[in-house]
Automatic annotation (TrEMBL), chains A, B, C, D, E:
UniProt-recorded name of the protein: BTB/POZ domain-containing protein KCTD12
Pfam families xref list: BTB_2 (PF02214), H1_KCTD8_12_16 (PF23110)
Keyword Signal part of the UniProt annotation: no
Keyword vocabulary terms for this entry: Cell membrane, Cell projection, Membrane, Phosphoprotein
Organism in which the protein naturally occurs: Drosophila rubida
Domain KCTD8/12/16 H1, first and last residues per copy: 109-229
Keyword set includes Ribonucleoprotein: no
GO BP annotations listed: protein homooligomerization
InterPro entries: H1_KCTD8_12_16, SKP1/BTB/POZ_sf, T1-type_BTB
Intracellular or extracellular location(s): Cell membrane; Cell projection, Neuron projection
GO cellular component: neuron projection; plasma membrane
Domain Potassium channel tetramerisation-type BTB residue range list: 5-95
Coiled-coil annotated spans: none
């Protein structure tokens, strides 16, 4: 058996080493290539390459996994389920664990960020807005996912039921008031913004309470941002 | 006839086994490769590969289907209609059923989720928002698709006509008040958010009715999210 | 001349039949491959393949068209203009007609859907919203495209000028009140939602007119959805 | 020197004619292939193909340019900068001019479309909306780009400074009131909608002025659409 | 050792020069190809090509880097992490620096642009809107990223703490009032718009202050745009 092995996987040609193919003892590739009994069951194509009757394109990732012992798929990889089928066929349990673990560690789902905001006005009124003023950033979604994304910055004190992490809650909020930091946290954890909507408040027939800044009151709005992880 | 068959499909080379090609008796491939009569009608290219005058790229999925007897296309696959044409050519009715069944089981369409919400304020007023408060999550769309996505969480009691599943309704709502759960349900069923819009309410010349929290009333808003499945 | 023809199109190798190449008498391929005069002008590469000095990748669709006599491009195909150039080079007028006809039949453009909506409240007030209430779905865009998408469900009675189909109108509305049905119609015709925005209404200093439900009045909103076909 | 030339560009094989390679006298390809002095500096691969130590994939577009003397890239082509590097290497100034000219003629940038709208109500009030009513479509962005997109339909009369085309303005509006026509113009010029947002107006403590339709006044809203060209 | 080297990288064939492979002395490729000791450790495939047991597809960018000594990846390249692994394997520190530097120079993150706007009305009232009127464009996000994008056009005077560039701020605004210029700046720096939302203001029970234009006041709105760089 030569050290360099030429493979024909469903018509796509790969070249690798025997060492790479034998890297994991539990796999079908080890069964096939470890000894003469296995190799004898392998057919060869007309150029003498060992033949595997599987999808040729996806074998690229099977081989990469064997070389590096780690799963590193392209961003936005779209053949995850097809790849899983290939890993199952080759009994590559370490790779299957990675594919599934990747999904378990980063389960798909949705988190909503909402904030009630207005503006701090200076003494010169409207033209002199000092800055954006947020009273609180609300976080809604599945408990476990909110915790994964926001960690220590998550305030759970309003959530009466410190129950199962699989339930949904709309009672979390953040300890800080920077929505951009919240967005960055979500982005770092693989969420993308899927939608956003805003609404103002209604005026009131009643006079505002004493001490409430009328102008600030008028500008109250609620902006809501939906994030999804595929 | 060798066990390993080299194919030239429109210029793209595939390698597979005779077994795979004969896997389904009703197909054109079975007709062509099962016996000498069929094989004699097959031309060969200059390297002796059996030649099929069809699209070379799509044959990848034809072969995958024959190997696994299951349809597993890449996420976001964009040549479904072209693939259907190939499956028709090869008389691969099992695969055609899968392509069509896939579409029937997950028909394209649109579902709208809307909610009327406000905030529960604590006794310290504006700065002390307790949590988001939703009165009800409305679900609009085709009856069958709404049922498929929301199952038992769908409340149909307001929908007077328990008629045909193909009609549209705007009278469904959910039994729970977590929009994130609704979004997750939609996402799990292959819908993606296509748009979102929000609006506040108008103030009223009349005094609010006794017992209504003025502040909560001012923050009433309606947010609407449109989901589409391609 | 063998029945199976091996082609080298700009370095990409295709295999097809003479029959396929001669399928359409008006084409350059027929000129080249029908008789010895044409074939003698054709150069061959070092492996004896007939050589065509054109883009190798796009020839896939030229060949598919000759095989099936129908144009079936991938969804979201992004080389339409490049393909048109190739079809022109090969004098494949039937294919050119398809490419252009495809564009004429489904011209790119934009349609806006807007609706004025509120909610039907039950006797228990806010908490007892019965359902979404739409007064009318407005359709704006080019007359011909609106008709193509909405057909019989389009009400043109408010449009005073039943003039040319190329003019724009903002006076169409639908005969039904299901925006999801409108979205489905648009989606079926190749439009995708590009944007969405909502707005509420202003309160009024005047008392609402007798018989108008105050709460329903407050929740009036206008949601607008822009659809584009590329 | 044979008329048909087989090339190995960084490992990707192309076949073309000597004629195509010599099409432009100022290029490195002409230097290399025009006479024996150039050709002698060219290495050959083991199969006798002329070898060029450059990116093999991008050479497809270099060759297409030489064949057609025109630049036609796929829609959404994402290797423009990489291609420019290749054109520079091959001293293909005509192609470089096209790549740069393409960018100069269609510079990236953003245009915002906003409109203030309401509805024309019939005599039966709310349920009898006649049509969408726009008072004016505002156009904001860089002067030159607004002019390129909207041409004669652009009204510049409110823009006091008819100065440099590189400055930004928010004082343009359109001569017509069809936002769909504006969207179509933008779409035709390669812009896509990147965002959209709407807002209603506030009620007023004062009674509306005589002659103002109260209902129409309440429905006033401002919708804004941001378009970007990459 | 011939000047032209044929490589088999995991089954994908590349052709390059010895010169290109030896371009950087610190790399594994230099170790392997510089002298006979290294070359003797290299296996060859059945066609005599030097064999490297690594991903064949990504080697395209490794080779491009060696040829041009510069990193130029396709726009929207999605295998950056996989490429980094390859660069690490080949000890191509110059390339690793580029990949990392590229990320450090353009760190992912989010910037929010908000503006409070209304319209300048002419003496003929509503129908005679002069132009959009923005009082101030607010910029929120991480200090360093805001500075990178907006440079001299950023006004930091309201930000009391001229502290670390890693903190978030919501107190920056722009020195000009053209949101399109802000969008262009963001777009030029690789940010894309991820969401947008608008809200109007509430009416007030009090009469507007003398000198305030009532109509302009009613149209006040806050539009917010979220930009993300991946």
């Amino acid at each position: 058996m030569p050290e360099i092995v030429e493979l024909n996987v469903g018509g796509v040609h790969y070249t690798t080493t025997l060492n790479t193919l034998l890297q994991d003892k539990s796999t079908l590739l080890h069964e096939l290539f470890a000894g003469p009994e296995g190799r004898d069951t392998l057919a060869k194509d007309s150029k003498g390459r060992y033949f595997l009757d599987r999808d040729g394109v996806l074998f690229r990732y099977i081989l990469d996994f064997l070389r590096d012992k780690a799963l590193q798929l392209p961003e936005g990889f779209r053949e995850r389920q097809r790849l899983q089928r290939e890993a199952e066929h080759f009994k590559l349990t370490a790779m299957l664990d990675c594919i599934r673990g990747d999904r378990d560690a980063r389960p798909p789902g949705c988190i909503t960020i909402g904030y009630r905001g207005s503006f701090q006005f200076g003494k010169d009124g409207l033209a002199d807005v000092k800055f954006r003023k947020l009273s609180r950033i609300l976080v809604c979604g599945r408990v476990a996912q909110c915790r994964e994304v926001f960690g220590d910055t998550l305030n759970e004190s309003r959530d009466p039921d410190h129950g199962g992490p699989d339930r949904y809650t709309s009672r979390f909020f953040l300890k800080h008031c920077f929505i951009e930091q919240a967005f960055d946290n979500l982005h770092d954890h693989g969420y993308r913004m899927a939608g956003s909507c805003g609404s103002g408040t209604a005026g009131s027939a009643a006079e505002p309470k004493p001490g409430v800044d009328t102008e600030e009151n008028r500008w109250n709005h609620y902006n809501e941002f939906v994030f999804i992880r595929d």
